[in-house]
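Query structure, 234 tokens:
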């Protein structure tokens, strides 16, 4: 390779990392808002999860027990293998359906137990279930972000949510998605344009059209969801 030559692949990787980290390389925190978020416990209370599942029906108890077994398997793997295990499992267990069909509401954020009880959910429900499952399997919160994106699907740009994993703070993320079964680097997902991202520790402004969602409105939904999943044992 000639001196000073930068491969097109590396350039694409850098470009993808910049897009997914935020405007330029400056990821900025919406201060004053994050303090409103309750921090979830890192340890999974298995007994509480099964008890919460029993309030739905016996089938949901079976789903909770199967989820716990999957999380235990994933916890014994290296981090990237955990991503594949959790992504594949939940993509299989949840069938995609819009919130209006499942919940009778335009927008509803289901807890992992709610999604598994229904066996159906939308893109946000997949991302939420994967997020809490990976944390329970030992992946640090700081490495995970829920990301609102604009996704090109069938020639149309649609609001969508994925889960991103950052091995290092400035690394190109790996994307967990219900649209594509394989976990891929962001540079291999040109169909996705990040808008903003968040986790239990912060909210970041990204780039792109804001029609994928209002960060401030989503913060309230996220806060309510965290309280709900905490009651379920996460």
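Result returned for the query:
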């Amino acid at each position: 390779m000639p001196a000073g030559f930068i491969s097109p692949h590396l350039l694409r990787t850098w470009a993808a990392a910049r897009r997914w980290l935020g405007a330029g390389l400056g990821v900025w925190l919406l201060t004053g808002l994050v303090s409103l978020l309750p921090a979830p416990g890192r340890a999974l209370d298995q007994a509480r999860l099964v008890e919460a599942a029993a309030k739905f029906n016996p089938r949901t108890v079976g789903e909770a027990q199967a989820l716990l077994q999957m999380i235990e398997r994933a916890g014994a793997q290296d981090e990237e293998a955990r991503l594949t295990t959790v992504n594949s499992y939940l993509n299989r267990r949840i069938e995609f359906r819009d919130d209006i069909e499942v919940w009778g509401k335009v927008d509803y954020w289901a807890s992992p137990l709610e999604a598994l009880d229904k066996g159906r959910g939308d893109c946000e429900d997949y991302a939420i279930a994967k997020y809490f499952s990976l944390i329970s399997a030992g992946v640090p919160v700081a490495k995970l972000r829920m990301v609102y994106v604009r996704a090109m699907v069938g020639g149309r740009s649609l609001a969508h949510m994925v889960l991103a994993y950052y091995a290092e703070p400035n690394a190109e993320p790996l994307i967990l998605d219900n649209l594509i079964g394989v976990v891929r680097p962001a540079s291999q997902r040109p169909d996705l344009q990040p808008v903003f991202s968040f986790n239990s520790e912060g909210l970041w402004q990204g780039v792109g059209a804001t029609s994928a969602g209002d960060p401030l409105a989503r913060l309230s939904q996220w806060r309510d969801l965290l309280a709900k999943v905490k009651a379920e044992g996460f």
